[in-house]
Amino acid sequence: MKEVGSLKIIRRIMSLILVVILIIGGCIFYGYKIEPYRVKTNSYDINNKVKSNNKVKVVQISDIHIKEDYTYKDFSKVVDKVNEQDPDIVVFTGDLYDNYSIYKDDVNVINELKRIKAKEGKLAVWGNRDYGGGSGNHFESIMNQADFEILKNDKKTISVNNSKLRFYGLDDTMLGKPEFIYRDFISSSYNILLSHEPDTVDEYKDLNFNLALSGHSHGGQINIPFILSINKKAIETTGLASKYSIGMYDLDNNKKLYVNTGIGTTHISFRFNVVPEVSVFNIEI
């Protein structure tokens, strides 16, 4: 009888081990093959305490990281998602290719970026990957051919519904030379600061912006419930994205910062519980 009981315990243990293996295997499969190719929309109502009939929809995408296992075909569903929002303005906050010297497909990437529709304009800023890997000689041309205007330490005023939005675009902090002439940072109906690396915002917190939009962090790419140290470690390895790494932050003087989790992946082609996103900002001005 003891032998029969022991066999039952062994079978239960083996069954439990099998279940654990299946769960782990399923999570790994999901992280490599499913989540990196998903895309979700996160929408925010901004400045909604203002009593105004003027509303502007700004859509942000970031960190596309085109590469061999994430091509223009995969990016196409992101373009569709952006167009579904019927945006007034689209902004791209950097990192088009993962490593241009290893994989590039300019014609198809330009065609997809060109498919993005925005009633009042499409803007972009440089990311560190747009300089690295040989991309620096091509990024601006690619974006211009896709009807994006690049703001490199520059500003752009867009009039929408009788109100003026002023966008200020910083050059990449890691590999570029970000700088602003402070007197150019003047008041408008609404001022938006674009910077690839989110932690850079602290250097400009005294400037007259209302909302800052960044990317770069990918939200850490991996966020396993109850094992937060993995996500923290992933974020810490990303320069200039350890203080602000994901989602909306309230800064001093009613300023806000939003850190987009990005579209693609880098280092490893794996995402878990950090779904690629298109962020939408419904701004009352």
Task: Name some characteristics of this structure.
single chain, 285 residues, alpha/beta, six-stranded mixed β-sheet, 6 helices, 26% helix
Overview of this protein structure:
The chain is of the alpha/beta class. It contains six helices and twelve strands. The chain has a six-stranded mixed sheet, covered by helices on one side. Strands 6-7-8-9-11-10 form a six-stranded mixed sheet, with no helix packed on it. Helix 2 runs parallel beside helix 3. The longest helix is centred in the first third of the chain and has 32 residues.
DSSP strand count? 12
* Mean pLDDT over the full residue set: 92
Sketch the topology as an H/E string, one letter per element. HEEHEHEHHEEEEEHEEE
The shape, in one word, is globular
Q: How helical, in percent, are the residues?
A: 25-40%
Annotation field: number of helices? 6
- Beta strand %: 15-25%
Compute the CA-based radius of gyration: 22 Å
Give the distance, in angstroms, between the N- and C-terminal Cα atoms: 79 Å
- For the biggest β-sheet, the strand order reads 1-12-2-3-4-5
Regions with little confidence, pLDDT below 50 for 5+ residues: none
Which class best fits the helix and strand makeup?
alpha/beta
Largest sheet descriptor:
6 strands, mixed
Give the oligomer, counting copies of the same chain as homo and different chains as hetero.
Answer: single chain
